[in-house]
């Protein structure tokens, strides 16, 4: 709108400058140090999530012969599944070491999970080939005797090198693994007991004794029940008694009423 000057003349009015408005995005943009802080927080969160997600995968990683040592370990017990206590480990270590008197290199291997398509006997055979080609200390090693346990499926296996075939036949090894070792595992995950029983049986045969045989499995005794069986129910005359009682319960009150109503 035109305005009047002090002299009374109309003059054009000048538009008032309007402050330039900043876009919301520019006002909300964080400072450089805030951007760095947010980036570090995001990286830390991603790292934590990665550890959480990859942790169970690493723990459940399948095991094959390639994941085991290239040479026989210094000790006779390779408890990769970590199922033996310190006392149990020491007891089994001594029992395995006693086999050296019979010129046998006996060892125990426990695993958490086998690789897909791999079973314990196959893994044992692969370990025999690997460890016999690289004996500890070189020289002419004693034949290997391996006891293996898969803790995930409770599977057991015993394998031996060919020189032991005459002393420890294949049927003895299979029977010891399938019964002597498997029975304590089925009745409560008793890993120490399973290995100790198997070693005692094999040591007896190696020393020229008679095979103690498979463990005796006690059959559970069925509890006595008061509920009759189907055969007992079919052969009983309970239905007849029910009919008689119903008839008596109906006729007797009617006769009583008829007699006293006269």
Summarize the helices and strands and which ones pair or pack.
Blueprint: E1 3-4, E2 10-11, H1 24-28, H2 32-59, E3 77-79, H3 86-98, E4 105-111, H4 120-133, E5 144-150, E6 155-160, H5 170-186, H6 191-206, H7 230-235, H8 238-261
Parallel strand pairs: 3-4, 4-5
Antiparallel strand pairs: 1-2, 5-6
Helix pairs in contact: 3-6, 5-6
Model description:
The protein is α/β, with parallel strands linked by helices and 262 residues long. The chain has a domain at 65-206: Diaminopimelate Epimerase, Chain A, domain 1, CATH 3.10.310.50. It is 47% helix and 10% strand. The protein is built from 8 helices and 6 strands. The protein has helices at residues 24-28, 32-59, 86-98, 120-133, 170-186, 191-206, 230-235, 238-261, and strands spanning 3-4, 10-11, 77-79, 105-111, 144-150, 155-160. The strands form 2 sheets. It has a 4-stranded mixed β-sheet, sandwiched between helices. Strands 1-2 form a two-stranded antiparallel sheet. A hairpin with a 4-residue loop joins β5 (144-150) and β6. α3 runs parallel beside α6 (191-206) and α5 packs antiparallel against α6. The protein starts with a strand and ends with a helix. The model is unreliable at 17-29 and 51-60 (pLDDT under 50).
Order of helices and strands: EEHHEHEHEEHHHH
Rg is 42 Å
Global shape: elongated
The helix count comes to 8
- In the CATH hierarchy, the architecture of the domain at 65-206 is Roll
- Could you tell me the CATH topology label of the domain at 65-206: Diaminopimelate Epimerase, Chain A, domain 1
**Would you state the CATH class of the domain at 65-206?**
Alpha Beta
Strand content is 5-15%
Structural class determined from secondary elements: alpha/beta
Low-confidence stretches: 17-29, 51-60
Largest sheet data: 4 strands, mixed
Question: What share of the residues lie within helices?
Answer: 40-55%
**N- and C-termini, Cα separation:** 128 Å
Strand arrangement in the largest pleated sheet: 3-4-5-6
- The tally of beta strands, per DSSP, is 6
